[in-house]
Structures are given as structure tokens and as C-alpha cells.
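Bumping with the actual sequence this time:
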Amino acid sequence: MTLTKPKNIVVGITGASGAIYGVRLTETLLSLGYSVHLVVSNAGWRVFKEELGYIASDREGFLNERFKGYPGSLLYHPVADIGASIASGSFRVEGMIIMPCSMGTLSAVANGTSDNLMTRAADVMLKEGRLLVLVPRETPLHAIHLENMLKLSRLGVRMIPAMPAFYFGPQSMDDLINFMVGKVLDSFNIEHNLFRRWGD
């Protein structure tokens, strides 16, 4: 007898501006019934505070409260927990999304520096041949940024810069955020209705 298990996806949120992208991605995946393994860098928690007003002494408790009420399940992993399930290739996941992705994290992934759970989990995706999507959020970009992106792209990493489109007639900030989240979900062939597609 084969048991159908919930699909696991790793979501990383770094200290790049655009924390709302990672929050909306997490909400959407949970609403679709996925098990989300969430990792937030220390700088990511700082951006939560600065951009979204999230202040939490109990980080896990805060996230469980913030993301409750969805059919999917949230599993929070502290960024220092290098022994977490997602640090091992034997733990099955569909893939990993880092949204937004700072240039520091992108550089660490590009150079195989696995000094925390975020970069270790990304390294596992590469070594296991699983889908890894990075959503860099920086401007302007210098040559090192671009070289790191090219290096990762050649390894099969999907680079989806936080560049929302305007052809679908966005009417709000939410529309622009949803577009970027939808483009990430498209990489995983996950059905959604977050934006109107060209030709629809």
C-alpha cells in the first residue's frame, strides 16, 4: 500500500529587501496544502521588523501564529540548526526557493559555502539534482553579482529576479507581489491564479 505524503518545499527568506515576497510565497504554498520548511536568516528577521513591523522574541511561535489556518503545514527551522532534516539529501523535498535572495546568500551558494542551514539546504538541492530557485533582489548589479548568477544558472539553478511585469495591468502592490510569486510557482509547475497570463 502506497501512502501519499504532503509535498515538502523549502522556503528561505534572507535579508534582501522584499520580505513580503517570501511571506506571500509561504502563504500561497500553505494554502495549496504544501508542507513548507521555512528558514529565515538573521538579517531576514531584521528586514521583517523594518519592512513589515514583525517583532518576535519567540520566532517559532510568532511564525506558527502568523501562518495558522492553512491546509498545509509550516515547519520552522532556525538558520543555525545545521542538523535539521532539510540539511540532508536523504530527506525528500520537491525543491527550494530563496525569496528574496540577498547577494551574500547567492554568493555563498555559488561558492559552496555551507556555513548555515540556508546555504546547506541550497547545497543539498544542487548535489541531489533538485530544483533550486533564487529570487535576487538588488540593484544595481556589479560584475561579481552577475558572475555568481551565471555560475549558478549554468548549474541549473533558476534565477528569477524580482522584476514584476506590467502587461497584465496591475492595480495594486499586491498584484505586483503576486506576479513574482506566481512566476516562482510556474517553475515548479504548481497551478495558481495569482496573475492574468498573456493571451488570457
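The C-alpha cells above came from a reply further down the thread. The two ends are 42 Å apart (CA to CA).
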